[in-house]
Amino acid sequence: MTEIKKELLYTGKAKNVYKIENDDEVLIKFRDDITALDGGKKDTLSKKGAYNALISAKFFKILEEEGILTQYVKLVNEDEMISKSLDMIPLEVICRNIATGSLLRKYPFHKNQELQPPVLQFDYKNDVYHDPMLNDSIIIALKIATEEQLAEIRRITLKINEILSNFLKERGLILVDFKIEFGFDKEGNIVLGDEISPDTTRLWDAETYENFDKDIFRKGEEGVVDAYHVVVNLVLTDEEKEKWNVEKLDL
Ligand code: CDP
Fold this sequence. Notes:
D-amino Acid Aminotransferase, Chain A, domain 1, alpha+beta, globular, five-stranded antiparallel sheet, 7 helices, Phosphorylase Kinase, domain 1, binds cytidine-5'-diphosphate, 2 domains, single chain
């Protein structure tokens, strides 16, 4: 356990953000809390925070290697990450490769329809307004981002989708959809922030289409943390599993 001097800045639904000595960075603690249905469903599940931090750190490292700017600096403990501090853009950028969930309820897509090109969606990250879907005009009128910044966000999101979809496909998982968030760094660059984990993605077994993500919890089924453990085992190298004492699974 590495102890870092920290001061709580704010508490989210599943993570705490702390100020640390270096003003350009923050410490993000991934808690074991899990919520769904706009906060209507809650639980605390041992190891969930650590698994999400380990998976997020791995994805961010892969993306950095491919030239994507991310907030990630390093993991200091299994559930604590040091990240560059960003001025966050209040958008939930959702990218979908397969039609499922609300897309089937709201539009005439057929179940599991492949979406090529992927469907991009922007939701307003705002609890008071319950995260409504936005379009470019509203985003620009609210001064959330400019037209050029939106084009850049779209470009980076599609690149992230390509990199992670390929990485997961090689490990037998389909990246069905995911939500990401961006912020501005000190130089004004658009940088990937927050997390990418089974809390914020839909991951399906490529053969059986079984869920390995938060949908298990949303549906009220058992075994959500076991599923996240499977994902950790699929994405981390043996060396990384040893370093963080992740119990190996026979898959
Ligand atoms: O697909 P559907 O509209 O039913 O649900 P969604 O909430 O729009 O989810 C699409 C994808 O974004 C899923 O992988 C969610 O896990 C993720 N998401 C998220 O992580 N956080 C949100 N606030 C909204 C979506």
